[in-house]
Design goal:
The protein is α/β, with parallel strands linked by helices. The chain has seven helices and nine strands; from the N terminus they run βαβββαββααβαβαβα. Helix content is 35%, strand content 27%. Bound molecules: hypoxanthine.
């Protein structure tokens, strides 16, 4: 047990998928895992452990934003020995060529700051994905048959943005989409020598204003979860 995770030692798998939404953790566990067992419900941040094609995997909610994700990822790595951590979430598209429902795989991510920024002082650390996971996810995405984009994303601290000029600069510099967690995940993975990746379904479009219709959400999130699971165990 840790401050924020009630699982007993051994109840968390080495491979952990991290949706922001704890209800999505439950939905994904029930849909994709064999024999999912609830291992955490502290603060309602549900976590489940089961198997996927015979491999043990935990699906643990991380909450929204980097400070929340940082708590769970620190404890998963340091107290539960997690070795492969894959964020599965949603993001807003920042390029015209990307459509809602498409999947974005983050090679690297730009931020104003992460909870780890105090360590780096004047350094601009460049958080990047684990290459073996990135390559495996891109391969899996081509088999799932969904539109896939691999490149840089923007990890923002705000959903309700008072600085639209930052989004414009991101678009101008080829950034694919915006979300709120990946930079801290990649930074912690680098610090502790574990593998990390962020795979996101495009739920809304910052340029066109399009949004994923409610009835398509489940299938789209399902595609992303399949990509993440296939990448984890390839
Ligand atoms: N902004 C930030 N985070 C997000 C968005 C967005 O538009 N969509 C999904 N996560």
């Amino acid at each position: 047990m840790t401050f924020h995770i009630g699982a007993k030692p051994g109840e968390i798998a080495e491979t952990v998928l991290l949706p922001g939404d704890p209800y999505r953790a439950r939905w994904a566990a029930e849909k994709f895992l064999k024999d999912p067992k609830l291992v955490n419900e502290v603060r309602g941040m549900l976590g489940f452990t089961g198997t996927y094609k015979g491999n043990r995997v935990t699906i643990q909610g991380s909450g929204m934003g980097m400070p929340s994700l940082s708590i769970y990822v620190n404890e998963l790595i340091k107290d539960y020995d997690a070795k492969t951590l894959i964020r599965i979430g949603s993001c807003g598209a920042m390029q015209e060529s990307i459509k809602v429902r498409d999947v974005i795989i983050a090679m690297t991510t730009t931020t104003v700051a992460t909870p780890s920024s105090t360590i780096f002082r004047e350094l601009n650390f460049s958080p990047s994905a684990d290459y073996s996971l990135l390559r495996a996810a891109a391969d899996a995405a081509s088999k799932v048959g969904v539109g896939v984009h691999v490149g840089g994303i923007y990890s923002s601290d705000t959903f309700y943005d008072e600085r639209p000029d930052l989004n414009k600069e991101m678009t101008r510099h080829g950034i694919l989409g915006v979300e709120m967690e990946a930079a801290e995940l990649y930074t912690l993975a680098a610090r502790y020598g574990v593998r990390a990746l962020a795979v996101m379904t495009v739920s809304d479009h910052l340029i066109t204003g399009d949004a994923l219709p409610a009835d398509q959400r489940e299938t789209s999130f399902g595609d992303m979860i399949e990509i993440a699971l296939e990448a984890a165990f390839s």
